[in-house]
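PROTEIN DESIGN WORKSHEET
SECTION A - STRUCTURE
LENGTH: 155
TOKENS:
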């Protein structure tokens, strides 16, 4: 587990999310975990590859986040792919659910980390990027690199 610039201990980050989605805004929320899940997170045994957030029963849930079973847990521990409840304020849930439903956006987890001993999830409101847009972005990045190289050669 490495500490980032804000002093939080990042367990796992979802790098693919920044590639596949355009991040519009991000927010922090708590996560309801069993004891063996916390132990697995502290050991760095989690994956957010295909995870997403969704609303069910007026609450925000995290789906497809894989937290590996803890090896020393009693009676097998926990289900690694179970949905996990996310903890945010009611007014935030209402505004997010309206925004996601109206604009066709999605909720994507960016990272799971510990701050002051509590597990937190950084979620993002995101818009999917089409394959054409990805290629365009890569082409623009390459053109900027070429311009920078040309500038350096001149001086």
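SECTION B - SEQUENCE
RESIDUE ASSIGNMENT:
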């Amino acid at each position: 587990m490495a500490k980032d610039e804000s002093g939080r201990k990042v367990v796992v980050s979802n790098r693919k999310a920044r590639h596949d989605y355009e991040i519009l805004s991000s927010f922090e929320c708590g996560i309801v975990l069993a004891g063996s899940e916390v132990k697995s997170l502290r050991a760095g045994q989690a994956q957010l590859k295909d995870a997403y957030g969704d609303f069910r029963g007026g609450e925000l849930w995290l789906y497809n986040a894989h937290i590996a079973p803890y090896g020393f847990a009693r009676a097998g521990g926990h289900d690694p792919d179970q949905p996990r409840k996310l903890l945010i304020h009611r007014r935030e849930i209402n505004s997010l659910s309206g925004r996601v439903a109206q604009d066709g956006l999605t909720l994507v987890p960016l990272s799971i980390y510990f701050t002051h001993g509590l597990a937190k999830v950084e979620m993002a409101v995101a818009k999917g990027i089409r394959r054409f847009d990805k290629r365009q972005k890569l082409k623009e990045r390459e053109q900027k690199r070429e311009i920078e190289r040309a500038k350096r050669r001149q001086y």
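SECTION C - NOTES
Residues 145 and 151 are 10 Å apart (CA to CA).
The beta strands are 2-3, 9-13, 21-31, 46-47, 52-56, 59-63, 66-67, 84-87, 106-115, 118-128.
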